[in-house]
Amino acid sequence: MPAESEERIHCRLDELLEARGMTLTELSRRVGVSLVNLSILKNDRARAIRFSTLAAVCEALDCQVGELLVVADPG
Amino acid sequence: MGPKSGRSPSRLKRASAPVMSRAEALFLMVVAAVVAVVATALAVSEIRALLRGPVTLDLPLRNVAAPSIDGVVEEVRGARYSSVEVAFESVPATEGLLLAVSAGLQALIVVAVCVLVWVLCRRIAAERTFTRGAEGAIGVVGILVAVAGTLAQALGSAGRDRLVGYSGLFRGADSRTVFFLEFSPTPVVIGLMMALFAAIVHRGRRLQDDVVGLV
Predict the structure, then answer these.
(1) Which of A6, B33, B153, B205 could serve as a FRET partner for B4 with CA atoms 20 to 30 Å apart?
(2) Pick the CATH number of A3-70 from 1.10.8.50, 3.40.50.2300, 3.40.50.150, 1.10.260.40
(3) Which residues lie across from B87 on neighbouring strands?
(4) Which of B1, B2, B7 sits opposite A52 (nearest CB)?
(5) Chain B partners of A44 at a C-beta cutoff of 8 Å?
(6) Local structure of residue B212 (DSSP, 8 states)
(7) Alpha-carbon distance B98 to B51, whole Å?
């Protein structure tokens, strides 16, 4: 995948966590993904995401994939 | 709201323990450093003895008129002397140089392998195992082991065979170099294995690049 395409994907993990009053540490404990990896995801530094991670995070936050990941407007 | 997936908790446990801990890597680095220092010290001592004497060497004997040892024991069909230990006050310059270079090359191989172990352990401890540098270092050490190992055997064999002729102690002794008779393919095989290892690291580096940033 080209680098520009990766950078256009925005992860709304921060907003979803805040809306649910959940911390990143709590999410890490619930989904079994390391805090480091969740932090990478939250800060839009991830270059790829496993379906299992995606499914686990969506389940823990009770949301759809489209609510978690959105395509950011260019520029 | 969202569809419930039947996730397996065991599949989501990704915070796996490293293959080698920092302490284990440090231990191997210390062992490699000690082995390299000891090998260098022994080689320097051996080279000094070969160039200045005195030194005791095992020399091969071929076609030597040696006392018969047939029939000592009923079960033994035959036996012959194949080598002799000779104590030299000083070794002739050419032969001494051949043997000294051979000893130096053997020590160089040990030191190179120890340096490689040290470098790889450092990279493992830093969690940067598969790098272009590691790949190149393994390949270079592999070539060094194959070439220097074979050359060391050839020079050592030539030096010892020439000394047999020089010493004049053994009537009929064959002082010609018959390296191929004593050639051991071990350095070449180790070199090939290391080349394969370098290819595996190359493949690992590509896989590592694929998973950087994967969550």
Answers:
(1) A6
(2) 1.10.260.40
(3) B56
(4) B7
(5) none
(6) T
(7) 10
Q: Which residues pair with B85 in a beta bridge?
A: B58
The single residue listed with the structure tokens 């379906």 is A51
Token digits of residue B198: 């370098």
Q: B34: helix, coil or strand?
A: helix
Closest-CA residue to B70 (of B83, B80, B55, B61): B80
Residue B175 identity (one-letter amino acid): S
Q: Where are the beta strands (DSSP E) in chain B?
A: 55-60, 83-88
B28-78 pLDDT, tens digit each: 999 999 999 999 999 999 999 999 989 999 888 766 666 666 666 777 777
Q: Which residues contact A14 (CB under 8 A, 6 or more apart)?
A: A42
Contact B1 A55 (CB under 8 A): no
**SS percent in chain A: helix, strand, coil, step 5:** 60, 10, 30
Structure tokens given for B80: 């012959």
User: Is this complex scored with an ipTM above 0.90?
Assistant: no
Interface contact A53, partner B, CB < 8 A: yes
Q: What is the nearest CA distance from B14 to chain A, expressed in angstroms? A: 6
CA distance B207 to chain A (A): 14
Instruction: Report pLDDT digits (tens) over A16-70.
Output: 999 999 999 999 999 999 999 999 999 998 988 999 999 999 999 999 999 999 9
Contacts of A62 in chain B (CB under 8 A): 1-2
